[in-house]
Amino acid sequence: MAFELEALVGHLYIVGGRVINVNPPGSLVEVAPPSAAAGREGDTLFILIAPSGSIAPTTFYQQLAQLAAERYFGISGSVTIALRTMFQLVNRNLYEHNLEHAESGGQQFETSMIAAVLHEDDMYVARVGPVISVLQTAGLTLTFPEDLSDDEPLFSVPLGLLPEPDISMVRYGVNAGSRLALSDGNLADIPSERLTSLMLENDIEKVLGGLRRTIKIQSQLMLVELVPPEYDGPVLAAPGESSHEISLRLKEARFELDADAGSAQWPLPRRGDFGAILRWGLARLAGRVAGLLLFVGDLLQRVFPLPATATSRRASSGTLFVSVLLIPLIIVSIVVLSWVSNLGETEFEQCLGRLQETARLARSIDTGNRRSVTSAWNATIQVADACDDMRPGDPSVAEMRNEAQTLIDTINNVKRREAIPLINFEDASISRLRIQGTDLYALDGRNHQVYHIKLSDNGREALQDEPVAKMRLGATHQGITIGQITDIAFDDHSGDIAMLDANGVLLRCAPQFVFTCDVQRILESQSWKKPAALTIWDRKLYILDSEEGQIWRYDPSGGAYVSAPREYFAGSARPNLRDVADFTIAGDGHLYLLYRDGVMKRYFGGSEVAFTFSGFNEGSEPSTVLTEGFFLNDSPFAPGFFLVSRGSRTIFETTAAGTFMDSYQAFDQQKLELLSAVVAYPEQNILYIASGNTIFSITMDFI
Prior knowledge:
Elements: E1 6-15, E2 18-19, E3 27-31, E4 44-52, H1 58-73, H2 79-104, E5 110-119, E6 122-128, E7 131-137, E8 140-144, H3 151-154, E9 168-173, E10 179-184, H4 192-199, H5 204-214, E11 219-227, H6 243-261, H7 274-303, H8 317-364, H9 370-390, H10 395-411, E12 414-417, E13 420-424, E14 430-436, E15 439-444, E16 449-455, E17 462-472, E18 476-477, E19 480-481, E20 485-490, E21 497-501, E22 505-510, E23 513-521, E24 531-537, E25 540-545, E26 550-554, E27 566-567, E28 580-585, E29 591-595, E30 600-604, E31 607-609, H11 622-625, E32 629-633, E33 640-645, E34 650-655, E35 660-666, E36 675-681, E37 686-691, E38 694-699
Parallel strand pairs: 12-35
Antiparallel strand pairs: 1-2, 1-11, 3-4, 4-5, 5-6, 6-9, 7-8, 7-10, 10-11, 13-38, 14-15, 15-16, 16-17, 18-19, 20-21, 21-22, 22-23, 24-25, 25-26, 26-27, 28-29, 29-30, 30-31, 32-33, 33-34, 34-35, 36-37, 37-38
């Protein structure tokens, strides 16, 4: 369907409740010009730029949109690369303007921008800031962002605040009859049903009329309808040239340019190819020096002409060689060596200047705008990391990086601590930690081996570590072979450490005598679909069967579990347990399920009891950062939960009711890159954290 769609375009511009009969100042529709780069020949570009913060003159937005269009059509390659580069150019212009005016107290500008590209039968949409697109195609109404009721993706950071823009992008398939609206954030206030009915009106003039009656106060909006070229309809925008004809003309022009380019003798080197740039520069410099020497020689020849018959002794061929070739080469070498010797220092000084400017801009942002302040200081850290790569350990860079990190931690209520390696196991991947007193157990989920670590009384040292011989894949005890280990748990009544494998084998060993163990195959375990976790509470065995959507409960009989299981969730209304990361039971009998999407549910006797997390900063909620595991501190020492988020490399602490208390991160965040499990030693205020094959300790309070 390439080049078979044309666009009808209309605009809506409402200011203070009054309809302005001109196009919004930052709106632009442009087909590919004859000079468009390869890959852009048949594209049609739609741009809408809306103010965010201080309002600039109308020409400011018009010129910005024109600049963006020129940049887009000058970039070859994919549509996404061209769009991303276009946004980066606009952002860089605004960002540099704001940096220049930050010190003098001049006016600073930030804008929201949304752009769409019709490329063959695809529509690409990119956005930065609180702007929206609505596409009506094939009976579907698709919005971008997808959920207009969610403020977080909608109100992203505008252009001009950060060195690099936060660009969101989406691609749709379109056809004749598809309609696209590009708008500021006010379109999100229209209910989805009403928005769909408006986009389905007979023609775009009626769509605009319905939107005009619905949006009362403020709107900057562009509406596009895709039609076949032969469509004869009302012209709502100035017609442009046919993209098909432009494509043909561009191909002819490129053919001529390619023919001319074949005769070029000194092609420019590619950017980033240091060797080619150096060779090209030396060649050009040597040519210029040689030309200059020839010119000087010719001038001297004219002023002091040589006699017809030279009476003086002729110079040797070696002297001529030194004069004509070696001297220019020495000059060129001196220039190049001087440049190369100062190159690193110059780049570092430029980087340091950018770092200072970025930090200065971050300091100038209103502290009440938490998201923008955080983003600006994060950008400062990125620049500092780049400078540190050029000159490691520079005190100025370290000072500004520490300032940025400290302010971000303060805003996000993060306590940064030293993660001290307690113990590591070769080729292991720790998936579970369990603790009772000074006995710490770790499950290596990769090799299906359980390790026992004996802690010192203060919890800061591992006095002893050893694998539990019988708790490993392939071990045999009393004629029963251990399979892949599902989970480990403590039996608070007997003090035993228990292990469950995927075949229903339960092995329990005394912590002081790990060679003294009892083993049994759990009754009816062959009917389990996918055992995922184990908990022992009040001597009863609870096994999470995630695929069955059930927790099986086994009651003890003497020292074993010999009776048939009972269902924890009665009836057919069972919760979906497939994405449960872990579960536990508190001392009062409440059962807690933690899902990988950060949701926690509480049950008592199989019935759900209301529970919700609260008090988290925006952006750090468990449902946003996601979770891999948790630990319930059920002791009298500050009872509550510790949640593990691998994505943010953070451990969150809450009360037993789910209210946020603290969050912990390591100074060296790479240590927690594979964060998977956490347990607490509350008497000593220590957290033990598993990351990859290592267990780290973190002190919750400075000492």
